[in-house]
Amino acid sequence: MAPGNLEYDGKLKGYKPAADFAPKLTSGLADEYLHALSSIKDFAHTFSQLDLGFAHTEMLTPPLRQVNPDILRALVHAARDGKKIDMGYVSLTSPDEESRIIAPHTLVCTPLRWHVRAYCEKNREYRNFVLSRFRGINGIEGDADMTKDQDERWHSKVDIVLVRDSRLSDYQKAIIAEDYNMTEGKRVISVRSALVPYAVQALNLDLAKIEARPEAQQIMVANLDEVKRHAF
């Protein structure tokens, strides 16, 4: 598949990349290796008896949100089969469990927790529901009338244009530009409209205020008004 990419090293008693090594199965980015380490470390954490040889790697993970396997299974089946399902759900704005008839279509993983994107019969709109807040399964309600195809915010993309905080020194701006792989002083991140709030949260940005210290802020959103329209 890639003859000449590796050469045998007698001292190492193994193979090492040749001087003209060129990646064939990956793009050769360091992020690929780091993501692989993250996945392997997470796998080893779940199966603690496995020794995968990565003791030199440590990964900080957020606290696990409790998700009932039966509820997850019901949501996955409803999404796969295009069904509406009646679920018990709690929210921070309502102290009591409510019956919600939803038509789920996609599971969404954010840095902090899992959600399901679904059409809500009560609110007559598509919403993101936190998986850990479902409390019960009341039953299937038939075929879904509203599917992923009608979810306009899901199919609409928004560009989040990141730039360096203008208050930084030229030296600091150069560091931030390198950190975020900016081109001509900006980095464009394309996100589904429905997921903009989570993207903003993952970037550690507060769209409503500016940090007093530019070293804490580091980056700003150049198209702030546009992003704000989708961050709800």
From TrEMBL:
This protein is called what? WYL domain-containing protein
Concerning InterPro entries, the annotation shows:
CapW_CTD, CBASS_pafABC_assoc_protein, WHD_CapW, WYL_dom
* Domain DNA-binding transcriptional repressor CapW C-terminal dimerisation stretches: 158-227
Q: What superkingdom heads the lineage?
A: Bacteria
Checking Pfam families in the record gives: BrxR_CTD, WHD_BrxR, WYL
Span of domain DNA-binding transcriptional repressor CapW winged helix-turn-helix? 2-38
Report which residue ranges the record marks as coiled coil: none
Residues in domain WYL? 71-137
